[in-house]
Amino acid sequence: MVQPFDVPIRDEAIRLGQFLKLASLIESGSEAKQVIAAGMVRVNGEVEERRGRQLVVGDVVQVGGQAARVSDETAEDDLPW
Question: Strands 60-63, 66-72: parallel, antiparallel or unpaired by DSSP?
């Protein structure tokens, strides 16, 4: 499995489509819709086809060869930029 990088969020939860863009795993909302519908997104190891799925701290999202973990805003992020 790919080592996930942490992406902090401000609230208690975030929708999958929003998180994909926040984590820069995709470039736009329309791209999020396409990759999710195509079954290319995994949440905690399972294919997820609901763009509105609520993610919470600790959830790991994988698209292709990249993975990001939802983390608390107070945690240090390890985004690649």
Answer: antiparallel
CA atoms of 55 and 61, how far apart (whole Å) = 9
- Report helix, strand or coil for 35: helix
Side chain identity at residue 46, one-letter code: E
With b for 16 or more beta-carbon neighbours within 10 A and e for fewer, the 29-62 pattern comes to eeebeebbeeeebebeeeebeebebebebebbbb
Question: Tens digit of pLDDT for each residue in 12-59?
Answer: 999 999 999 999 999 988 899 999 999 999 999 999 999 899 999 999
Report pLDDT for 29.
Answer: 81
Write the DSSP symbol of residue 45: T
**Separation between Cα atoms, residue 56 and residue 53, nearest integer Å:** 10
pTM of the model: 0.86
